[in-house]
Amino acid sequence: MSMKNWLYAWKDPTLNLILLEDSAAVIGVALASAGVGLTHLTSNPFYDSLGSVCIGGLLMFVANFILRSNLETIIGKSIPPKQLAGITSDLECDKVVRGVHDVKTTDMGGATKFKAEVDFDGKMVSLNYLSRQNKKAILEEMKCAKTVEDAEAIIVKHGEGISDQLGMEIDRLESNLKKKHTHLRHIDIEIN
Question: Are 55 and 31 within 8 A, CB to CB?
Answer without folding.
Answer: yes
